[in-house]
Amino acid sequence: MYDYEIEGEDGRLTAAQAAFEQERGRLYRGDGQPRYGEAEHKEQMAAITSRLDAAISSAQELAGRITTEQQTQIAHLQHGDTLDFLDTVEKMNANTCMAFAKEDAETLTPADLVMRCQIALAGSDKAAQYLLARYVGRRVASAVEVARAVAPTASAPTGDPAWLTMEQREELAGLVEQLSGKVRGAEGLKKAEAARARLTRAQALRARTVALYDAAHGLQARVKADLIASGRYSI
Question: Which residue ranges make up each domain of the chain?
Answer without folding.
Answer: 2-78+195-230, 83-185
